Fold each of these.
Amino acid sequence: MRLSRYFLPVLKEAPSDAQIVSHQLMLRAGMIRQEAAGIYAWLPLGLRVLNKIEQIVREEMDRAGAIELLMPTIQLAELWRESGRYDDYGDEMLRITDRHKRELLFGPTAEEVVTDIFRASVKSYKDLPKNLYNIQWKFRDERRPRFGVMRGREFLMKDAYSFDLDAEGARKSYNRMFVAYLNLFARMGLKAVPMRADTGPIGGDLSHEFIVLAETGESAVFCHKDLVEMPAPGPDLDWANGDLQPLVNQRTALYAATEEMHDEAAFNALPEGDRLSARGIEVGHIFSFGTKYSEPMKATIQGPDGQQVPAQMGSYGVGVSRLLGAIIEASHDEGGIIWPESVAPFDVGIVNMRQGDAACDAACETAYNALKAAGKDVLYDDTDARGGAKFATMDLIGLPWQLIVGPKGIAEGVVEIKNRKTGERHTASLESVLDGLTKSKTA
Ligand SMILES: Nc1ncnc2c1ncn2[C@@H]1O[C@H](COP(=O)(O)OP(=O)(O)O)[C@@H](O)[C@H]1O
Ligand SMILES: [Mg+2]
């Protein structure tokens, strides 16, 4: 992408109502624009990151055996009456009436819809287990939308729903999601700690929130400090038949709870040096709730003994749009965002220090074409802005690598390559820099 033809409305200063750094940086970097309280337009740079995060979530869900579908944003009130949640949900639900006076709503979550889909066609234990997920916009009329995409009213969520014959199967489904979550957050460069959590309006008995520690987080959390550095298990597991319980136990054996579930006495029983009391951002939340929806909605299946039983269910959410904020909170400096390579909007930025200079232009074109041919996403700053302004923009938008081409260097046959994260700069021939960038898996 040539910057001169792109749409990147960067701002020098963050609007004063943006209180936390991720919100400020997303606005300054031209990633989002607020259209109404808690409702954002995703500008091109923001959309690129959103799509990358979405794709990582999708790959890890697929790996864990979940199956993608797409449910509508608009749902029937009738379905929510069946589960008994229509009245309970309160003012957070955006209720809509159509021209036939039918009551509709903009889905805040999709337990009812997915249960309706499931009950229409799955009748036998032989078809289980099933885990259906979608990545879809949700609407919750939050009382206090704030912090940009962190607490929006309209936001993108991955929500998965598992169906099993019995509690043992449901536990396995829960464990698959628990472990998949460890991997998917790790792939985005995040340390997300699973913590015992309250089940809230979704209901149920077993629940964990995945929390990224950050001073600006909305939740107070308490955990054993070893959990923070514990590495994710990685993809090479027997997802279909393996026993993931030991991986789950390894983590749940250590104390970790959100404020609602906090047990002061149990926490204080830990050696003082192991206690971590901090603030965190909830990026995912998993629930096991048995027959809470399948029973009233009559989603029954026939067991091996011929008996009809309501399906055992769980639901598993990831805040896809919130993750942009969480990643920025975890990875930035005074200059701006530092994207982990896996979610960066572009892999490399090319800075032409003297646009219009034949030798600089030619070197930049060579680099741009070679990197694109190697499958890299490249943003080429071909504008006639000053070098200093170009550097500031590149640092602000946080691309992992900057390739800097200036007249002095070109005269000597060299260019500069800068790593955004470490700030390290090297000078080398264009050829060897391109060689390094195109060969490295991650650059
Ligand atoms: N208002 C919101 N804005 C952005 N993301 C949200 C919002 N509400 C929830 N999420 C994300 O969706 C995930 C699943 O939501 P859920 O746990 O059902 O919501 P809540 O924790 O608000 O009850 C959360 O872990 C969070 O990452
Ligand atoms: Mg939650």
Note: The mean pLDDT is 96.
Amino acid sequence: MLSIPDASFPRPPLPADEQGAKAANTSAATLDRRLSVAPMMEYTDRFCRHFHRLLSRNTLLYTEMVTTGALIHGDRARFLRYDPCEHPLAFQLGGSDPAALAQCAKFVEDAGYDEVNLNCGCPSDRVQTGNFGACLMKTPRLVADCIAAMNDACSIPVTVKNRLGVDDQDSYGQLCDFIGTASESGCRTFVVHARKAWLQGLSPKENREVPPLMYGRVYQLKRDFPALEIIINGGVETLAEAERHLRHVDGVMIGRAAYHNPYLLAEADARIFAANTAAPSREEVLERFADYAAAQVADGIRLNHMTRHIIGLYAGQPGARRFRRYISEHAWRDPSPKAFFRAAAASVSAAPATEQPEAIAP
Ligand SMILES: Cc1cc2nc3c(=O)[nH]c(=O)nc-3n(C[C@H](O)[C@H](O)[C@H](O)COP(=O)(O)O)c2cc1C
């Protein structure tokens, strides 16, 4: 077993030539995972993803986890629905039955997604009852069977999102066993949440905060499995941090920070993907989201189902609190979307010049 120190990583800026200049994501074959927004249940629905896409053209977006049972027996069309502008787009599945996962991987491919991801990191009681999510880290052979079945059923990339370990199965050697076994069945890309999970005694929220982050283990995985694509996840709050991680791994996935401070995505195309594009202003993003929201409202969607995802747009800016308040107080009344977004933007500029920016929510 290897013993890997989890020293903090070096922090010099990423040289321009290392930032790479791959083309924007257009198909599974060219999927560029240098930056992605994490799958988050109840958060990364299609409205949220549309909003994130207005901020960054290249960042890979993930759906919420959908279980195989829901996809096979539930309202499949609703679970698979997305807007073509959301590409590049990955669908996350929860399950542990190879046949059911294979069937669902095919649904996902047929719906036009660019990637299908298997959740091996969620520690909630609900997924433990179904014997999937983080529990799967205890059964690498079963994960390998799941991946093989999914790969047989579809031709889009099958990827895995996992933890460093679970419970007392948390050594680096056991992590290597998991990655090695899963990769032998054809998985080339692993998104590693850089902390272990406790299956008993911690809530899902605590399992995102209490077990310590061990970035060094993820870097070591990349060194030990250089042919695999290793994406790091957990606790990344800024693009500067993402750039530093990219010195050691192939990609960075950001969850909570992208949700609570979405404007950080606005510079991702230029900084992470070396695209020759200027960051859109917050006001431009609002204007474009207003057009989208108007079309959705005309289709019967409640305005506040969409606006809840944008309340962090001015995080850290003067007027952020007014913006949030305006949205929470007015969106549920279902006003005309265009007028609503104009007034929401105006509420920010109404902030007195002396107002101090508030800290960004964790
Ligand atoms: C509200 C919420 C819901 C989440 N739902 C999922 C999920 O459906 N699938 C998954 O793999 N991870 C899920 N996660 C975990 C995130 O994908 C990510 O691994 C975790 O938040 C750590 O990244 P961060 O520190 O950048 O937020 C969820 C996290 C949050 C905060």
Note: Residues 282-349 form a domain with the Four Helix Bundle (Hemerythrin (Met), subunit A) fold (CATH 1.20.120).
Amino acid sequence: MSVTSTLQKTVFAAGAEVLEHAGPALTSVPPLRRAAVRTGEAYIRHWQQKARTDPGNLAGIVDDQEAMGLALLHTVERAFQRPLSSAVRQAVAHNLVRSILIEQGDRNAADRFYAQHGAYPPGFLTISPGKACNLHCTGCYADAGPGAGRLDWAVFDRIVSEARGLWGARFFVISGGEPLAYRSQGKGILEAAQKHADCYFLMYTNGTLIDDQVAWRLAELGNLTPAISVEGWRERTDARRGPGVFDRVLSAMASLRAAGVPFGISLTATRDNAEEILSDEFIDFFFEEQGALYGWIFHYMPIGRSFTLDLMPTPAQRLWMWRRSWEVVRQRRLLLADFWNHGTVSKGCIAAGRAQGGGYLYIDWNGAVSPCVFVPYSPVNINEAYARGKTLDDVWSDPFFAGIRRWQVAYGRDKGNWVLPCINRDHHAALRRLLAQHEPDPTDRNAREALLDPAYAQGLEGYGAACAALIDPVWQEYYKRSVSAANRGHTEALAQEESVAAPNRQARV
Ligand code: SF4
């Protein structure tokens, strides 16, 4: 076990202890809460110093992981400033912190898989069980809308059960479509969370179907947290998602706060809103006033409905987002993850159920299994695989997925710039080579169109080259700096990047 993973586990273990044993007293006794946080911080500092002495660790990565560890700790503290339902406290402590973050699922199952395949199994699955959505947002990655396809409940349930049994997975991300609109055989997402009570679910939702009743049901379940989509302030959110959606989102957040359910926000960063969603005012509003505990930022990916390269943040904006998002994490201790700029925390791409562990696969409403939500090409359909007597292990073994896993290993060995981790966005030519070799099916007509469009490929390759020109120097000078430079502290090193990182909204791919 590396020193850095020990560091993470120590932080998570401290969090679990806080949740399990101090319980409601942490909410009602602020000095006790602060003392618990100080203890956790001391642990993190201690392990950070040890990590710095290991020549196998890059200084910048230790910095990033320390910063995320501290942000996690302070997120626990923020969670306890409001009453949480007892089911939520139990599920977060047992399922999320202890079972998933510390033990990383069922190790017996993972070891069995390793003995058989020589690689670690996926750590989780993202499943979009239904394409149906009550909104019709511009640029929806899933091209979702009313009356669309869905997985049969029996298949959805079998996928979750099999991932638990064969891989030891305990974490499931639910997307869509709108997850709360999914129904099959009279069951939906809430029934799935109830049935798999030892797992933890995160669902990406537009929030408009969360009322008081749903919020109290989530409080009873405890093992499902909603990440609610917002695009920016009211005007921008309503422009993309429909009139009145921003206010319905705030109403959902009020219901969740009242019921004691932890929730976060999900943000799609575009060329037009990147500065807005990372502004202090915006972050204050959602994290401090509305009580969001975490935020996921996804840079717009040119897939799905009306896809266009013109909405992607420019390379200069991306570099600015890297600096700004880490500033928020470091200075404000907020759990705000910027995909793909925080690839240092996951140590790179996690698609195709990567061999080193912690990876995932994506399964959509038609049963199409893809390496990732953002790589819409599928070599295998789960419905057909099950009909032929296959399992998730057979699906994982598909040669297209194996090709991506080999690329991940080679990239880490040869270059390893985890700030540019993505085989689709940052290294598109590599993805094209694998698509040509294995010919997986596009999962929709948008993906087929993109595949056949040479300008699309050239545009993404140009984007990757422009990002590399800006970000490779950051990797060399900041992340790979010497231990003595690291000991001067990351603040100074970050300041040295300022001149490189100044945003230039005029720059275009
Ligand atoms: S393919 Fe790209 S989006 Fe998908 S997991 Fe890898 S880095 Fe993330």
Note: Residues 454-479 form the longest helix (26 residues).
Amino acid sequence: MMKLTQQQVNAINYAEQAPACVTASAGSGKTFVLVEHIAKLISDVKNPVPADRLAAVTFTEKAAAELKQRLSQKVEELLKNNPDSDFLREQLVRLSSARISTISSFCLSLVRDNIRLLPDVDEGFEICDSTKADILSEKAEEKVFEHICADYSEEKRKTLFKKLGKKVSIMFSVK
Ligand SMILES: Nc1ncnc2c1ncn2[C@@H]1O[C@H](COP(=O)(O)OP(=O)(O)OP(=O)(O)O)[C@@H](O)[C@H]1O
Ligand SMILES: [Mg+2]
């Protein structure tokens, strides 16, 4: 049995309503702490969080898959030590529909599930890939410049481009 650090114990047992931020270096046990913390929340018989009400988001698909796999493994272990618990068995089933995904797919399902509340969003919307995003942002730039050239006086345009020029040179000098 590994010896947890005091910070890990604190993070696993964190029970405040306020948000918490846990940071630690690579490979030091962040996912481990997260798995233990979630397992504690969903296996608390007195005040359980229904496992299908969880939302855990990650940046990468790989991290989401790892979190899902390690969490199911943890609950399976709890069930092995407590084979008569219908409660844990049900939580394990519920866990398969928990929202453990990347931020992008979480947002996608949020928009899909609430599409009727968003009249400006086309029902056939899809996630933009990076090539399409580049094309769209170039089109948007062109529109902005067209707007500026059409609506701004020569004087205003000069001032704006001077300001932009200064910002860009500051950005480059910072880099
Ligand atoms: N206190 C500890 N003592 C010994 N081993 C530990 C301790 N805490 C976690 N570990 C083990 O360290 C390994 C790495 O843990 P984990 O994958 O959770 O780290 P991580 O911070 O999420 O890594 P990454 O930065 O790659 O995402 C795991 O095998 C985990 O069981
Ligand atoms: Mg990790």
Note: The CA atoms of residues 6 and 133 lie 45 Å apart.
